[in-house]
Amino acid sequence: MSDFPVSALRSVELSTPDLNGSVDFYTRVWGLEVVAEADGKVFLAASGDDFHVLELKEGERAELRKISFRVRSAEDLADLLDKTMAAGCTVLRTIGDADAPSGGRRFVIREPQGSVLEFVHGDSRKAGTEVENRPTRLAHVNINSADIGALTTFYQEVLGFRLTDRSKLMAFLRCNDDHHAVVLAEAQQNGLNHVAFLVPSLESVMRGSGRIVDAGYPIGWGVGRHGPGDNVFAYFLDPTGVVIEYTAEVLQVDDDYRVKGPSEWVWPPGRTDHWGIAPPKSEACKKAQTAIAFAQ
Ligand SMILES: [Fe+2]
């Protein structure tokens, strides 16, 4: 049995040049709920048991400020801090009480390729439920990397993730039974590729997508079914240009899962998903997937 010190991807923090507009989009359109406001940040929850899944903060431009992972124990938290320091990460906040209203103990580092990662243990949870057509929790973050080999090794050897698949351009990494919580994408520059939110069902991807389209935000890619992870997807751009995804039916795996490599993840000509009915990804979506930097 795999022994993961990181138990889940919990939340991401984004900056936005229009805080009110982003909060309006993520509540009224995307289906999250404001649960707290503190220190100029707005905390938004999905319907599952995480206190929040998204933090928004006003800034000059849209950027990824941090990714927060939940850690299994206080011992693992201390151990991860030691390991990340030994791996050359910069400590931004050492172990102490969390800044977010969700509480718990945390530390924050910047890994060598520039993303800010927070590790939290003992954060408060709420009674969670699934609500059709609304996000339940985060599903994965997809990070652009100019050195995907080094970052894959960092996630595996320092953070204890396991590789589940490697396509030509992407590495899929898990920290629990979900096929992936983190995806690394080969890119010219490091940054955020997209953030995926789990919805309860394929029907929820379809109906949720209809609500987003009705609100004036066209589908950037999809609806389709991914190769690695077998999840259904629909991609959108939020009002600030961050690519966000509704996804469902993520493959559940255990240690018997056979890791497949680039030669096995090849689509027949003209296809980019299992179904073969998704129109090509929009140019706007492609561009946005390389446009969001890590906040400095
Ligand atoms: Fe994705």
Strand and helix layout:
Elements: E1 6-16, H1 19-29, E2 33-38, E3 41-45, E4 54-58, E5 63-71, H2 74-86, E6 90-97, E7 105-110, E8 116-121, E9 137-145, H3 148-158, E10 162-166, E11 170-174, E12 182-186, E13 191-198, H4 202-214, E14 221-225, E15 232-237, E16 243-248, H5 283-288
Parallel strand pairs: 1-4, 5-8, 9-12, 13-16
Antiparallel strand pairs: 1-5, 2-3, 3-4, 6-7, 7-8, 9-13, 10-11, 11-12, 14-15, 15-16
The structure holds fe (ii) ion (FE2).
Residues 140, 142, 194, 196, 245 line the site of fe (ii) ion.
Rough shape?
Answer: globular
Tell me the CATH architecture of the largest domain: Roll
Give the domain tally: 2
Cross-sheet strand order for the largest sheet? 2-3-4-1-5-8-7-6
